[in-house]
Design brief:
With about 300 residues, this protein is an alpha/beta fold. The protein contains 15 helices and 12 strands. It has a 4-stranded parallel sheet with strand order 2-1-3-4, sandwiched between helices. It has a 4-stranded parallel sheet with strand order 6-5-7-8, sandwiched between helices. The protein binds iron/sulfur cluster. The site of iron/sulfur cluster has 13 residues, from α9.
């Protein structure tokens, strides 16, 4: 048996479903029952008929799945797979912001720990951040942890946003010069940027969208080549779904090392041993779930 077949066999025995984020290595996306963005996968995890969820992504994503599916075992096959952006803010930092700006609502990007979500009023994803801000009755909002997403969502929603100074190193590393350089080489290709990119990079984009939005934009665009301003892993599915189209990266290759820690071997081992299970204490999970549910109720 190939290792992928061995995994499928043991997954069936364990009644396990394998989920892979779009930034995972190609072989893991191929193996997975579902590939997608972090929030979409957590919703699938909560609805799917399974006893075990193998979440191939990073720690906060497995936590979100555990929050939304408290009755299932959620495995993160590599326990060191954290997200540097999520690690840039702690629950006590949110407490400090609330003290400094009393009465203002706190919106937490889903790229945060369960503890930070539990301290927040609303969650948001990169696809609904603008809608969440627009629906809030308040003119001023605290937004954590990504300053670039905060800047973009503030401009699009017209709200005054007090940002936490966190950033995703992978998107932050792309410079204006990187984009200008690849654009000079491929002037016909629209540049699509993730809103975690720096404001000056986002300002150059032909289209700004969430991870999932890249797929719909490329599929429906008449253009035949694109400059992709997000993590390299997304190219696997973009190429597969759009065989006639070409993709270019900013001069700098965008790779998230945390997203590449999980291997077929670690999936097999954690499914065999049923280890690396991610749990969230129930009082934290209950409060974090409320912030996630409020997001769904106001953004539709
Ligand atoms: S790409 Fe950025 S936001 Fe996503 S897991 Fe890596 S560090 Fe975190």
């Amino acid at each position: 048996l190939s290792i992928a077949d061995e995994i499928r066999k043991i997954a069936a025995k364990r009644k396990a479903v394998i989920l892979a984020h779009n930034y995972q290595p190609a072989e893991i996306q191929e193996l997975a029952d579902h590939a997608g963005d972090s929030y979409g996968l957590s919703v699938i995890a909560s609805k799917v008929d399974a006893e075990v969820i193998v979440f191939c992504g990073v720690h906060f994503m497995a936590e979100s799945a555990a929050i939304l599916s408290p009755e299932k075992k959620v495995i993160l096959p590599e326990k060191e797979a954290g997200c540097p952006l999520a690690d840039m803010i702690r629950p006590e930092d949110v407490a400090g912001l609330k003290e400094k700006y009393p009465g203002l609502p706190v919106v937490a990007y889903v790229n945060t720990s369960a503890g930070v979500k539990a301290m927040s009023d609303y969650c948001c994803t990169s696809s609904n951040a603008v809608a969440v801000l627009q629906q809030l009755p308040d003119d001023r909002v605290i937004f954590v942890p990504d300053r670039n997403l905060a800047d973009w969502a503030a401009k699009k929603s017209g709200k005054k946003v007090i940002p936490w100074q966190g950033f995703c190193p992978v998107h932050e590393d792309v410079s204006l010069e990187d984009v200008q350089s690849v654009r000079r080489e491929h002037p016909e290709a629209p540049f699509i940027a993730h809103p975690e990119c720096r404001p000056e990079v986002v300002a150059l984009a032909d289209h700004v969208t969430s991870t999932s939005g890249f797929f719909s934009y490329v599929a429906s665009s008449p253009a035949t080549s694109f400059i992709i301003g997000t993590e390299k892993g997304i190219l696997h599915r973009l190429k597969k779904e759009n065989p006639g189209k070409k993709f270019y990266e900013p001069r700098l290759e965008m790779i998230c090392p945390s997203m590449k820690l999980i291997t077929l071997e670690s999936i097999l081992s954690s499914l065999e041993k049923l280890d690396n299970i991610v749990t969230v204490p129930s009082e934290v999970a209950d409060r974090a779930r409320k912030a996630l549910e409020r997001m769904v109720s106001i953004s539709g």
